[in-house]
Amino acid sequence: MTHSMQIARALAAAGWLLPFLAAVASAAPLPESTFRQDRFAVGAFWAEFPGDADLDARFREIADAGFTLVFGPIEGCSPERLVELCQKHGLVALVHAGSGSLENLPAGEACWGYRVFDEPSKTMFPKLRERAGTIRRIRPGKLDYINLFPNYASEKQLGVGDLRPRRASGEAYAEYVARFVKELDPAVLCFDNYPIFKPDEGDKSDRSRLSQDLYCQNLKTVRRYALEKDIPFWNYFNTAPYGPHTDPTEAQLRWQIYSSLAYGARGVLYFTYGTPDTFEFPKGGGILHRDGRRTRHWEQARRINREVRNLGVTLMKLRSTGVYRVKPGDNPEDVLKGTPVRTIRRAKVDPPHDYLIGIFQHQDGRRAVMVSNYRFAYTAWPTVEFDTEAGQVFEVDKETGREIPVADDSPKMPGLQISLDSGEGRLFMLGKNP
Q: How many other β-carbons are positioned within 10 Å of the β-carbon of residue 425?
């Protein structure tokens, strides 16, 4: 009897063999994912349609609104039909994998991959690792997609810390993401986080401030691990009124999206496209009403998505190198020291500085700067001083996606003025480090 057989018998006698073998299996080599994202992801999640819907017309409508990615399952639409319709209308699909066999799932060109699980606890990672490995072996090039909890989830939900039903600390959430990256070796990181926008008299409430801060902290944490692994990350944001959430304004949609872009996201996912007929959504209010009519959010999404898709060609070529928040009362020169932005000034009549600044490096070596208005209730007119001459600053045009010379929005004032709508961001291209 070999030494290993003696160990196995001893473990079996103690009732430990099955857990031991499970641990060995979970530690088995995981095939590397060969999925590669080839376009910016603008996701339509939970596409609910009336039972008699013309699916071809509905998918054309999704494409017309500027979406690029559709999530399954969709009631009345088989996985094969989902991929077929996406192919026809220039979209891609993530098919719901379910818990059964993967052999019969579609694998066409418009199929990016398969939804494996939503918001897993850390305790589920070994089982999900097995599922991911199976997908990578039988469907090479396809994404085994898993969406993570937000950072306001409890320790118990995440499976970390003391497992108490309280919001996890930043350290505990980072551990959750780090363990997922280590055990699942994902090709894409993704999470959901739905900030609460509660107004107070003349400004946002303390709850809204905390919720926005948590949103950005979540982006910061996931960005860190995505950069370490050199993979893209995506995130879901809120589109509909439900639970404690008010119905987002167009500016609040912009704020969620452009904050994500400032942190380097390569995918922004709308929650939700349709309006689920569940107790959570008594008001309705997704991008479509339950009866299939467009809500105001459809036109809002189309306007924003057009911008994002035009920016997305450049965004896919950028690597995030820093994110800076210039808060009211901050000295911008101190906060932005060492970045391509020397300072930001404002007219006295304007609200105090409140910006999110994303710094990037283009794959050709040039630098890029996204200046985003952190306020969702006020426009901003910052005077921005870059570390290069204004004539050498270009902007990625949201109408065409081309780089154009930056325009001074207030040429009669000293310096370069740029105007930002509430929640809006603008992307500027600069030369290589001077």
A: 27
Cβ-proximal residues to 386 (8 Å cutoff; 6+ apart), any chain: 340, 341, 342, 369, 393, 416, 428, 430
Cβ(358)–Cβ(319) below 8 Å: no
pLDDT tens, residue by residue, 96-113: 998 888 899 999 999 999
Q: What angle do the packed helices 250-262 and 206-229 form, to 10 degrees?
A: 30
- Running DSSP on this structure, what letter comes out for residue 76? T
Max intra-chain CA distance, the chain? 90
* Paired tokens of 413: 């004032």
C-alpha to C-alpha distance for 110 and 94, rounded to whole angstroms: 9
| pLDDT tens digits for range 106-140 | 999 999 999 999 999 999 999 999 999 999 999 99
When pLDDT is averaged across residues 333-338 and rounded to a whole number, the result is 98
Q: How far apart are CA 371 and CA 265, in angstroms?
A: 15
Terminal CA-CA length for the chain: 70
Q: Note whether 311 and 426 are within 8 A (CB).
A: no
d(CA 198, CA 211): 9
Once rounded to an integer, what is the mean pLDDT over residues 78-92? 98
Phi and psi for 165 in degrees, rounded to 5? -80, 50
**Ordered alpha helix ranges (H), 230-361:** 250-262, 296-315, 332-335
Q: How confident is the model at residue 201 (pLDDT cuts 50, 70, 90)?
A: low
Side-chain-side CA neighbours of residue 38 (13 Å)? 11
Residue 212: name the closest of 226, 229, 194 by CA. Answer: 194
Please provide the DSSP assignment of 241-262 as one string.
--TTPPPPPHHHHHHHHHHHHH
Cα within 13 Å of Cα(214), Cβ side: 23
Half-sphere exposure of 180 (CA within 13 A, CB side): 31
Residue 41 has which token pair? 């992801």
CB atoms within 10 A of CB 416: 19
Q: How far is CA 296 from the centre of its chain?
A: 22
What amino acid occupies position 277?
Answer: D
> Which residue, among 217, 192, 225, has the nearest Cα to 320 in the 3D structure?
225
Residues 162-191: tens digit of each pLDDT: 898 999 999 999 999 999 999 999 999 999
